[in-house]
Amino acid sequence: MQYRRLGSSGLKVSELSLGSWLTYGNAIDNEVAAKTIDKAYELGINSFDTADIYNFGEAERVVGKALGKYERGTYVLATKMWAPMSADPNDQGLSRKHIVESANKSLKRLNTEYIDILYCHRYDPNTPVEETVRALDDLIRQGKILYCGVSEWTAAQIQEAMRISDTLLINRFVVNQPQYSMLYRNIESEIIPVCESNGIGQVVFSPLAQGILTGKYKSVSDIPPDSRAANDKMNFFMGGLLSDESLSKVGKLSAVAAKLGIPLPQLALAWILRLPNISSAIIGASRPAQVEENVKASGYVLDREIIDEIEDILK
What we know:
Order of helices and strands: EEEHEHEHEHEHEHEHHEHH
Shape: globular
Distance between the termini: 31 Å
CATH topology: TIM Barrel
Structural class: alpha/beta
Strand order of the largest sheet: 3-10-9-8-7-6-5-4
Number of domains: 1
Number of helices: 10
CATH superfamily: NADP-dependent oxidoreductase domain
CATH architecture: Alpha-Beta Barrel
């Protein structure tokens, strides 16, 4: 496993992180989830990602319990807040009240004394950015969190937050968590340049495009019955990524992977890690074997010719 700095901070995270969205605390048996986390830790993954809204706190409890057996300083634990956790009008958003209370609740569910990275899960148009960044800075000064970041904010929103933090001389965001994959490249034009200029690293989610880049889907009319696309509760999150055009590209990418003698998911992950601004890619795994396969992408460097060939396919 290779490690990279988280933005301009001194924190180093594994090139692959293990996430818990849509799996732990719900779809996957807790014992299997724990074994999967154990396998990730054993193979050198030191970065683990969750959120309060993932199964309304259950994912945090599963992750916290599984990691509790290890020395706290040996892993990087990240969680998020913003989403409504109840009908209470203040139990959502990025107000000082919700940030502080959410952090305290997450600490209890994770059974830890501090959170390495606390993300603002989305932007909150109803709260002044100054209120948000001051509250996060207070949590850092109190030692409850070590770093802060954002997820799915626009380039302009990130830049404004950095300007305010610099004006106030308080702790800045060091990480952004956007969606990024071969089939979803929205961050390349604006987000990455703004983040690079501000010392913010990317920890990307859905690097395999909701499973499309595993090669399991051969046709939009022939969906595997046990797949995410066949699940009415989960296929909403695929966001139109599953299409004839996408699958045509996947077929060509599979041929590139075969030429290199590696699985398509490994190619997709290695392609993401070609960018220096990417600190880590979050993989989802429902069993230990999936982690064993995906970690092979770390340190696998694609040469310029292969990157150009992939670019031609993706265009």
